[in-house]
Specification:
By secondary structure, this protein is α+β, with helices and mostly antiparallel strands. Helices cover 51% and strands 9% of the residues. The protein has 16 helices and 9 strands. The strands form 3 sheets. It has a 5-stranded mixed beta sheet with strand order 1-2-7-4-3. The two termini are 42 Å apart.
């Protein structure tokens, strides 16, 4: 394999890299995996929106997994996002659970986990099935042409709003703010555009936080059978979520839980359309094969392509030396195509087993809290679609926004 890097097309810190076709990017990751050590990429600073000078790219599966297992050394603080926001963002919005280390992360995770009672999980499953049925009803009635708007985007945000207990008259507002909050995702080459979209993003997140904080205050006095009520009344060793923590958790759930599942569903339909043999195999024994199919969709698509970590002390990682203060990028999108772990890694194989992908993050305390819900959403919606719309298929290629963070799908044509 040719391991020579092209300094123009292989610069992971440049938007130009992430606007290239997927196969070009995957080839670059393959070259990076062949290098003797993780490569460092310098980043251009964007005033008010980005801090930091660059990162070391962890592209091998073993390195991503090992760093994930050592959270005290490869820290999620101050931020896992890319680009890293400046410190003022934390002071304005509070800290998301994903940007915390233990013991603060463990405390919040305990409180949230305690709120997910068996009764609430059963209600969520019921809501999910009902929503999937309603979505397919509407597809049959209206015959829309954009799969993202009609199905992939609608399912997770509706399920999350049902779970949180967002009143019907507020849902259009929530949808609008979520869409705006995800417009600025990843690197941008135009500084003025980055600043403008960053302001819109921040305003949308603030609106979402204010909305749920108001509902939280109401639920403290008038509890209901929803997640907001459970969170504001959850008591773990005398601790409850503060109003600010509730707001941060809600925005994380809406943005992360919505975007990742929506993108996995959209990529899933496209993959099953361009691999008709795999689709036929899945439909031949759906209940047996859908668990491994979901894992392969998540591996192949990798909805979240990377998270960042900050090195807290001089250390060695699989023979690579890092210094305190270094920033590293856990490139899940590359680790999930590592040929030393996955046979024929670029193939889409719904029977792949074992499948130790890192599409929900690496092992350790930051493994995705919503992985089970995401798996259920993908399972239920495809069962409903393939049962009632057996001819459903993607038409054309997904329309994707440029981003180094979300493997997003803005639009996907479909027919049935």
């Amino acid at each position: 394999m040719n391991t020579t890097l092209n300094t123009t097309t292989d610069d992971l810190a440049d938007l130009a890299f992430w606007t290239q076709p997927s196969q070009v990017r995957l080839a670059a990751f393959a070259r990076l995996r062949e290098l003797p050590e993780p490569r460092f990429f310098a980043e251009r600073r964007v005033p008010l929106l980005r801090s930091g000078t660059g990162f070391h790219a962890l592209v091998r599966h073993a390195d991503v997994v090992e760093a994930s297992r050592r959270p005290t050394i490869f820290s999620s603080e101050p931020s896992v996002s890319s680009p890293q926001p400046p410190g003022w963002v934390r002071h304005v919005f509070g800290e998301a659970m994903v940007d915390m280390d233990d013991p603060r992360h463990a405390r919040l995770r305990r409180i949230v986990a305690r709120a997910f009672t068996p009764r609430m999980l059963a209600k969520t499953e019921e809501d999910l099935r009902r929503t999937a049925t309603e979505i397919v009803d509407d597809v049959l009635a209206r015959r829309p042409r954009d799969f993202v708007a009609a199905v992939a985007a609608r399912l997770p945000i509706t399920v999350i709003c049902d779970m949180m207990g967002i009143p019907g008259d507020l849902r259009s507002e929530v949808h609008r703010h979520v869409d705006t909050s995800t417009e600025y995702s990843g690197v941008r080459s135009d500084v003025l555009r980055a600043l403008r979209m960053g302001v819109r993003n921040a305003s949308a997140l603030m609106s979402l936080q204010r909305l749920v904080i108001r509902l939280g205050r109401r639920r403290r006095d008038e509890p209901s059978d929803d997640l907001i009520s459970a969170l504001v009344h959850a008591n773990v060793d005398g601790e409850r979520l503060t109003a600010r923590e509730l707001g941060s958790f809600f925005t994380l759930l809406l943005v992360a839980g919505n975007e990742t599942t929506r993108n996995a569903i959209a990529h899933g339909l496209h993959l099953l359309s361009v691999h008709p043999g795999q689709r036929e195999l899945l439909l031949s024994d759906y209940d047996r094969l859908i668990p491994t199919a979901v894992e392969e969709i998540v591996r192949h698509a990798t909805p979240i392509m990377q998270f960042r970590r900050t090195v807290t002390e001089d250390c060695d990682l699989n023979g690579h030396a890092f210094r305190r203060g270094d920033r590293v990028a856990l490139l899940y999108v590359s680790a999930n195509r590592d040929g030393s772990v996955f046979t024929d890694p670029d193939a889409f194989d719904i029977t792949r087993s074992p499948n130790p992908h890192v599409g929900f993050g690496g092992p350790g305390p930051h493994f995705c809290l919503g992985a089970h819900l995401a798996r259920r959403e993908i399972t239920v919606i495809f069962r409903e679609l393939f049962t009632r719309l057996p001819g459903i298929r993607a038409v054309g290629e997904p329309e994707q926004p440029p981003s180094n963070f979300d493997n997003g799908v803005r639009r996907l044509g479909f027919d049935f």
